[in-house]
Amino acid sequence: MNTFFLIFIGLPALEIFLMIKIGGEIGALNTVALIFLTAIIGLYFAKIQGVQTLRSAVSSVYQNKAPIYEVISGASIAFAALLLIIPGFFTDLIGFFFLIPFTRNIFFRLAIKKEVKKSEGKNNRIIDGEIIDKDKDEL
Question: What's the whole-model pTM score?
Answer without folding.
Answer: 0.74
